Protein: Beta-amyrin 28-oxidase
Amino acid sequence: MDVFYVSLLCLFISSVFLSLHYLFSKKKPGSTALPPGKTGWPIIGESLEFLQTGWKGHPEKFIFDRMTKYSSTVFRTHLLGEKAAVFCGAAGNKFLFSNENKLVQAWWPSSVDKIFPSSTQTSSKEEAIKMRKMLPSFLKPEALHRYVGIMDHIAQRHFADGWENRGNIVVFPLAKNYTFWLACRLFVSIEDPKQVDELAEPFNLLASGLISIPIDLPGTPFNKGIKASNFDILSHMLLTSDENGKFMEELDIADKILGLLIGGHDTASSACTFIVKYLAELPQVYQAVYKEQMEIAKAKGPGELLNWDDLQKMKYSWNVACEVLRLASPLQGAFRKPLLILHTMLYWSANSTHKNPEFFPEPQKFNPSRFEGSGPAPYTFVPFGGGPRMCPGKEYARLEILVFMHHLVKRFKWEKMIPDEKIVVDPMPIPAKGLPVRLFPHNNLA
Ligand code: HEM
Structure:
């Protein structure tokens, strides 16, 4: 029996080694196991070029230049202080997503640990594992059913305060206000817009990595949030003990909520902003979204809130949102740390498939029909990542984006005030001036 298990182990190790060798080997016979590419300057490596292509609005250029020059599957570089192998295409995504905790593990650059100093002095990896355990009960579709009405209610207040009776608005700050307000309401039971505003400023600074975390100051809105009593994610964290019967420390809870608020806030607001941009540029797409949303709106009684079934009917709108997520993916990719053999970080890149004609013909063309039927091939559409570390906020994001689209098109048509506004990706894509638009309210609003 022992011999059997030893053989099995040998077989496993050989297959691991061979699969890594296959992915990393150059085409030239006799070459080393390192993928082709260059690591650039000492210390900064190729980070500057990586960031610069983003600042110029074309983060995919960094990837595609190297895919053309070195290899369409994997190339070597040096990013954000780390030697890295960038995995490209559907095969690269599949390899990283399906080998989580077998060959690779999620990993963040050390700057993340500095911005999120953990109360318990553990690494961001351990913190993420804890977070991952907490989340499913809140963010799985069934649990989200009861969020839809609350989202609708907050969206109504948001549009009434920020959009209505204003000729011109700037979309990005408003979209941030919307997603932040929702997160405050759903995660820490804060609904009062004044309190939300007070919280928003330090969060925005924090998200940019400029200040340390303002969490444990008595009397701050965040602290008040911790005392909020509704059964939300906060009270769950307060009431749940781990397998050893230990309850989470207050600071630890604050850490987790902070992660949730930041992780979910900028990504979804970037997506909402690009939806407004593309709908302004594509009147036919706008018209089709408008038609779908008005059918839902007209079937509602006065004051009746949106519900789960309504959101299931928003199929075309979600295809539009997916096409926006393909073209302007809020996250560009993420790192993985190999568990065996290599001393190089691995990186998956959304653009290596999203903007690749092999997987999306005419990749620059906005075409929501790509998502009809069975949709894109597996591992090609990855705005939320994939495998065990796929974004746990995906369904939550879908709901908040659809509720946003519903209120937006139900109320307005709009036009961009800067027709060729530049896009900056730093690290999320946003229009350089925040997307100023001129609003034209519909007259037929109830
Ligand atoms: C359009 C909106 C969003 C996009 C595009 C997005 C994208 C992603 C991606 C690509 C990852 C995986 C990164 C990796 O491979 O390591 C991720 C992870 C994560 N997302 Fe999202 N996300 C969005 C919204 C949200 C929301 C609304 C929440 C919370 C309510 C959230 C919470 C998280 C968390 C906690 C993780 C880390 C999971 C882990 O480490 O296992 N995200 N997100």
Q: What stands out?
A: Residues 106, 128, 131-132, 259-260, 263-264, 267-268, 271, 330-331, 334, 383-385, 389, 391-393, 396-397 surround protoporphyrin IX containing FE (CB under 6 Å). The radius of gyration is 23 Å.
